[in-house]
Design a protein that fits this description.
The chain is an alpha+beta fold. The protein has a single domain, classed as NADH Oxidase, CATH 3.40.109.10. It contains 8 helices and 5 strands, in the order H-E-H-E-H-H-H-E-H-E-H-E-H. Strands 1, 2, 3, 4 and 5 form a 5-stranded antiparallel β-sheet that branches. Helix 2 crosses helix 6. It is globular and about 55 Å long. The chain starts with 10 loop residues before the first helix and ends in a 6-residue tail after the last helix. It binds flavin mononucleotide. The site of flavin mononucleotide has 13 residues, from strand 4.
């Protein structure tokens, strides 16, 4: 059993074994389990306890219909970012050191794991498309926050998301956060009652990892603490 296949028995275990899973088994996740994970995630800190998050959970027919519409929009090239939305998970131009880290990640995922070369746009599209089926997970989620205190709400949403992903690990489940859904906010709004003053933060796939899939081997590196932390004082 690899580290990633273990169920997390402690917070540090959950942190070490969490990774973005992009191939799931169809095994369902009971609604009570999903509700318990969401209740745990909602223990997240938020500024003045405003709890600005909302979650739309899609399974079964609702998930299938959403996927079909997203694929139709993708195939028709109808990308549709929410106007006036300051949260850009993928800026037009990446700067260093983020450009290099992103390139390393892309190479790891596409070329080294899937055998898709850098100039194989169709191969990349084929993989990207799987985002909209939540990578085969039985449960999809769309996380939104209130647009009113937006920047603060995004920080709070990040805490919620991390809690959800770690709680999933403790339950022996895996996740993948997905900004890909931001490209199709109009489709999401057709399927889900997302209020006008709500902003889509990301999607999330939740389920049982398919440990036999080649994508199960993607483990991403991290910079050492000395690269991002500066200590002051004696
Ligand atoms: C907000 C957010 C959005 C993401 N969007 C996507 C996505 O759309 N598709 C995807 O395959 N991975 C997505 N990821 C996963 C990242 O690629 C992943 O977290 C990163 O490469 C580090 O790898 P790890 O999660 O396996 O540790 C997203 C992660 C975050 C936090």
């Amino acid at each position: 059993m690899t580290v990633a296949q273990r169920t997390a028995a402690s917070v540090s275990d959950a942190l070490r074994t969490r990774r973005s899973v992009r191939a799931f088994r169809p095994t369902p996740v009971p609604r009570e389990v999903i509700e318990e994970l969401l209740a745990l995630a909602s223990r997240a800190a938020s500024n003045s306890n405003v709890q600005p998050w909302r979650v739309h959970v899609v399974t079964g027919d609702a998930k299938r219909r959403l996927t079909e519409d997203l694929w139709a929009a993708l195939d028709a090239g109808r990308r549709d970012r929410q106007p006036g939305y300051p949260y850009q998970p993928a800026p037009d131009a990446w700067v260093e050191p983020f450009r290099s880290r992103r390139a390393e990640f892309g190479d790891r995922l596409y070329r080294r794991t899937l055998g898709v070369e850098h100039d194989d746009a169709d191969g990349r599209d084929r993989h990207h498309r799987r985002n909209y089926a939540f990578f085969g997970a039985p449960v999809g989620m769309i996380l939104t926050v209130s647009a009113h205190p937006l920047v603060g709400a995004l920080v709070d949403a990040g805490q919620f998301l991390q809690g959800l992903m770690l709680a999933a690990r403790e339950a022996g489940l895996d996740t993948c956060a997905q900004a890909s859904f931001l490209d199709f906010h109009r489709v999401l709004r057709r399927h889900l009652p997302i209020a006008d003053d709500e902003i889509v933060v990301c999607g999330l796939a939740l389920g049982h990892a398919d440990h036999d899939h080649p994508l199960d081997d993607v483990v991403t590196p991290r910079e050492p603490v000395s690269a991002f932390a500066t200590f002051h004082g004696s």
